[in-house]
Amino acid sequence: MAATRTRSTMSATDFKSTFDAIVGNIETVVKGKHDVVRLAMAAIICEGHILFEDLPGTGKTVLSRAIAGSIDATTSRIQCTPDMLPGDISGSSIYDQKRGVFEFQPGPVFTNVLLADEINRATPKTQSALLEAMAERRVSADGVTYELPRPFLVLATQNPVEQAGTFPLPEAQLDRFLFKLSMGYMDRASEYEVMFDNSANMSIEDIQSVVTQDVVQQMIAFATTVEVSPEVGYYIVDLVQATREDPAVAAGGSPRASIALLKAARVLAASDGRGHVYPDDVRTILKPVLGHRVIQNPDAILRGDTVDALLERVTNRVKPPLAPRTAA
After folding, report:
1. What CA–CA distances, in Å, run from 219 to 11, 60, 64, 103, 204?
2. CA–CA distance, 37 with 183 (Å, rounded to integer)
3. Sign of the torsion angle spanned by Cα atoms 218, 266, 1, 139
4. Residue 273: exposure state from Cβ atoms within 10 A (0-12, 13-18, ≥19)
């Protein structure tokens, strides 16, 4: 049975104040990463997922726990390894000797915020099991379908340096992630603050929720009502199609990329207290949405061309509408 959709009663002003409160609460423990925190919150409201390509120790685990703690949600973490099986993520049926039946034991994927650490160390079969749960938001076992909780956010990580013994995600699976982000190292002042916060105690342990999951469901519902004019809608389509036409491209953004841009732009507009999307909202989230979906051809890679440079060319070539048309 499909999950029941929540009908939102909040306004754009309510959305902005709630969004800012959650971001501010997360930033009490995640220092100096304002843009990443906002995009992570945008992902959970878009009901999308994030792939972090980052070095260890940059705060991804803290971010996942801070998000869950701020919205009164559950969280779990899995460390992906080559010997991990799909059932280690989704769960499996265990024989109950007293009752004489097999009983399904939910795996760590049955949570609101799941951190999948070093996803590229899991085998393709295990990766597929996780990505299927991400896309379908449900797990099937022994002919029975189990719905995953809502909201549901996967933060998957991969180490860009240590590639020995890894299984790179195929392009079709990369396309399942809403954003590809990088935490990166902190600035000097933020690292100093974190160093002393955590020398006394783990500050993440002290984080308190500022909203309930019901409020997050209201935010998810409101974001779908943010107006997108035909001009801005076609601007999104033109940007994605332009990535397919660049001479440096082997494969451009798919229609799923257009949908992702639309969803993320709506949340970005709502987080600014607006009920309609501007072209600037689209340009702001272009790289996080398309950066991992565009594949360059070998000649472009040999020339030293980059995806960032390609997206910059696309942005310059596709002219935005002069003004969005909003409803009267």
Report:
1. 9, 24, 19, 36, 24
2. 9
3. negative
4. middle
Give the mean model confidence (pLDDT) for residues 187-205. 75
DSSP state letter for 15: H
DSSP letters spanning 67-88: HHHHTT--EEEEE--TT--THH
Nearest to 67 by CA among 23, 107, 97, 10: 23
CA distance 30 to 194: 8
Look up the CATH number of domain 12-219: 3.40.50.300
3-state SS, residue 153 = strand
Taking a C-beta distance cutoff of 8 angstroms, is the pair 42, 264 a contact?
Answer: yes
- The backbone torsions φ and ψ at residue 106, rounded to the nearest 5 degrees and listed phi first, read -60, 145
Taking the C-alpha atoms of residue 9 and residue 297, their distance in angstroms, rounded to an integer, is 48
Contacts of 72 (CB under 8 A, 6+ apart): 209, 211, 212, 213
d(CA 78, CA 317): 42
Give me the residue label for tokens 């990580």: 157
Report pLDDT for 323. Answer: 57
Give 63's Cβ-side CA count (13 Å radius): 31
Domain extents for the chain? 12-219, 226-317
- Per-residue pLDDT tens digits for 245-296: 888 888 889 899 999 999 999 999 999 999 999 999 999 999 999 999 999 8
CB 161 within 8 Å of CB 118: no
The values of phi and psi at residue 49, to 5°, are -135, 160
Place of tokens 């009908």: 7
Beta bridge partners of 249: 296
Mean pLDDT over each residue of the chain, to the nearest integer: 88
The domain made up of 226-317 has a fold known as Helicase, Ruva Protein; domain 3 (1.10.8)
